[in-house]
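sry for the spam today, last one i promise. struct tokens for design, 263 residues
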């Protein structure tokens, strides 16, 4: 009898649920961490709940399968961040790791999803997927920053896909494939020699009637650029490229238009 193949890497899934508490605030009836994804309830502003993702072990390594789901019910307000950058590292056999994030935001709910950067270390291979499902009236701030390689080292391989729907209709769908083996990833049509990329997706009903203008910004110091682009819907996408993650973050902050109607 042939033995089943060995399972490579860690399988871990964490879940967050936020609901109105009936007193003008937000409760967290479900906060379930798993494996390397430890979830901590942290101090928040009135009306909001805040969760910090804490890395309980080195992850993702090659072969790991990680998933993080968050659901914000109608009328709830949730802010999710992370305690430190996520570093993708190579596994023993070169297998690809995956990290899936699924976000659901109900009517008149608000989610701010702003983790620290994701760093693809040399030799790593990671596929990141973020799926967002919004209901009409929902508000969203989502920030992603990705860095190819730690300081002074070669980049790892990173595939990143982001999809967002509003009432089941497409709002945004994009994919990036970066690092060794990807044609032209470091050329002028993609990163142009830079090693960090970031994006900020803002969704608010008021953007339908009052979208911001298309705007291009350059970094105050160093090599970096950001572009503000209204989408076909109540959304705005800010994209930034720079030599390092810190400059990308500063560019996203500078280019960030206000979220209309936000409390």
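last one done:
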């Amino acid at each position: 009898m042939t033995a089943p193949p060995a399972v490579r890497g860690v399988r871990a899934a964490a879940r967050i649920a936020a609901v109105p508490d009936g007193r003008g605030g937000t409760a967290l009836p479900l906060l379930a961490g798993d494996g390397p994804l430890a979830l901590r309830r942290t101090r928040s502003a009135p009306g909001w709940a805040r969760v910090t993702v804490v890395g309980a072990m080195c992850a993702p390594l090659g072969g790991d399968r990680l998933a993080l789901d968050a659901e914000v019910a109608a009328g709830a307000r949730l802010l999710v961040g992370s305690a430190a950058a996520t570093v993708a590292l190579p596994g023993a056999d070169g297998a690809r790791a995956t990290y899936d994030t699924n976000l659901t935001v109900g009517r008149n709910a608000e989610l701010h999803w702003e983790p620290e950067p994701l760093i693809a270390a040399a030799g790593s291979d990671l596929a990141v997927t973020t799926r967002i499902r919004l209901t009409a009236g929902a508000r969203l701030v989502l920030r992603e920053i990705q860095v190819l390689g730690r300081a002074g080292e070669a980049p790892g391989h990173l595939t990143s896909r982001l999809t967002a729907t509003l009432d089941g209709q497409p709002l945004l769908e994009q994919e990036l494939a970066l690092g060794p083996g990807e044609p032209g990833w470091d050329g002028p049509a993609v990163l142009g020699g830079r090693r960090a990329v970031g994006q900020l997706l803002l969704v608010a009903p008021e953007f339908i009637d009052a979208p911001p203008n298309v705007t291009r910004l350059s970094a105050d110091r160093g090599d970096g650029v950001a572009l503000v682009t209204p989408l076909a819907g109540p959304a705005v996408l800010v994209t930034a490229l720079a030599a390092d993650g810190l400059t990308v973050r500063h560019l996203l902050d500078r280019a960030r238009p206000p979220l209309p109607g936000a409390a």
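Residues 12-204 form one domain. ok im logging off now
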